[in-house]
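All the exercises in this workshop are built on plain-text protein records. A record pairs a protein's sequence with a compact description of its fold. Backbone structure tokens are a discrete shorthand for how the chain folds in space. Once this layout is familiar, the rest of the handout is easier to follow. As an example, a complete record with its sequence and its structure tokens follows.
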Amino acid sequence: MFAAVAAIPLADATAISFLNPVFAMILAIPLLGERVGPVRWAAAGLAFVGALVLLRPGTGAFQPAALLALGAAMLLGLEVIFMKRLTGREGPLQVLSINNAIGLGIATLVVLVFGRGVWVWPTLAQWGGMAGVGLSMALAQSCYLNAVSRAETSFIVPFSYGTLIFAAVIDFGVFGVVPRPVSALGAAIIIAGGALLAWREGRAATRRSAAGAAPRP
């Protein structure tokens, strides 16, 4: 993903990377044995359309380097599958700790091998910023792991598009950037996709509860 951002516009790379919930839904079929019905497909598709409207990818998305972002989306989708499998066997805290320890090891190795002559020691403010990023990511991963341990992957992943909405809200609250009408349209489409999915799951849960409560003949 970092390599893609270095080669193509950030908006294009981000838009392509938001295909990862779609890949996760597709991979959940053969790898997790989940069934993805038409409503879930429609909700995911609607959310993806909203992401495209919100990010407005340009022609740069069709550059060869865009394949790197596509590969990142596929790998992120595969990561969701691994998390789902692990949360069925291990506790969320164990998965979170080992996952981040592996990431730390890989990042440290890259710095040691390729960082010579490039590494600059961070300032105190930068250490604080990185600590904030790490804490935020750890909390987000913890929430996500608990979610995938309690529901099917194909239901959880479309809600990741909500990242775009929260980013717009934070951008306005912290930096005073007022969303443009097209941004509001994209956010509305994403919310519609999530609402459709929640409505479908609510009805399915009601039917399951009714079936479980029904007396047996």
